[in-house]
Each structure stands twice: as C-alpha cells, then as structure tokens.
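Here comes my example:
=====
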Amino acid sequence: MNNRWTGRTRWAKAAASVVAALMLAAGLTACSGAGDDLAAQYREGSDKGYIAGDFAVKEYHGDDRPAAVRFAGTLDDGTAVSNKTYAGKVTVVNFWYAECAPCRQEAPVLEKVYAQYQGQDVAFLGVNTYNQAATAQSFAKEFGITYPSVIDVDTKSVTAAFAGIVPLSSTPSTVVLGADGRPTARIIGALPDASILASLVKTALDES
C-alpha cells in the first residue's frame, strides 16, 4: 500500500513539473514576441507586463507650458544625443520598453505618424526605460521602427529630465516638444490610433 501511494505521489510531482515547465516556456515565448501574445493580452484588457494609467491627453497652452526640457543620453547604436540635437524641431518623445504590452500595441501607430511627417521639422525619439541596446534593436526590427531610441535603463537621466511632465510609473507615455523644447502636449497610455498624435504634432508645427 505504501509503495503504491509513493508511486502515485511521484507521478503527481512529475506531472506538476511538466505543467510548470510548459507554463514557463509559454511565458518566455510571450516575452520573445512570438505571435505577439503581450499585445494580444493588452487588446483583450489584460494588464500584464506593464504599468500605465488610464489613457489621457493633456495639451499645454501659453504660460501653462512647462520650461524647455534639457536632457542627454545615448542611443542604442552608441550615439550621444541631447536636447540640442533636436533644437528647432518639433520632437515626439516616447517612453517604452520591449515587454510592455501597450508599447507593442502602439509601436506601429508611432511609426505611422513618424513617416507622415518625414521631410518636415519633426523628430521622433524613443526612451527605453528598461532594456539594453540589443533588446531595443530587436524590438525596432520586429515592429519596423525606424526612429532611434535612447537606452535609459542604467542612468535614467532622460526619464528624470521629464519627471515633471510624465509620471515615472506610467508606461507608455508620449510627450510632444515644440521647436523651442517646451512641452506642448502629453499623452499617458497607449495611442489608440495615429490621428491623435498627428493632430498634436500639427498643432506644434503650426505654432512654431
């Protein structure tokens, strides 16, 4: 009787181990982007893998606009950039990381608006708050992102520079800077479509 019970116990433990292994493998697959399970979870209303507030757009007008943001960082290809790099241009700054479900959802939207304003005085800059350069580059390749990203995981210097504009716990977030470097708009949460951001960029361009 004891031997039979021991055998059943061992079988149950083995089965549990197999299930755990399968669950781990599935989790790793989701994080690798295969089938883009994280984006699918976000579309279905899951909040796994990211921290974000409710979607909200804030525009700044006149004297309500914060001061020009001064920042410096290093792109995923090792190039040093700062606010001076983007002086005189309307600049869209997007905070993201690769495992963030809504970041994956909005990536094509950001690229669409970026392409829309090619040839005009508009620049896009991603700020990766969590990953190293290789992961950021893989993300860009997977989602067809052609604008650069600062790798901010080690220094957090760019994130800190925008701390008064973007809540540090909200990812993704997007800030539109006017040609003078002052924020003209802020978006908390994933962009549902291109029209909102395109309109905010146009407003900033018209005012510059």
Notes: Confidence is low (pLDDT under 50) at residues 1-36, 38-52. DSSP finds six helices and eight strands in the chain. Strands lie at 56-59, 72-74, 80-82, 90-96, 122-128, 149-151, 173-177, 183-188. Residues 2-32 form the longest helix (31 residues).
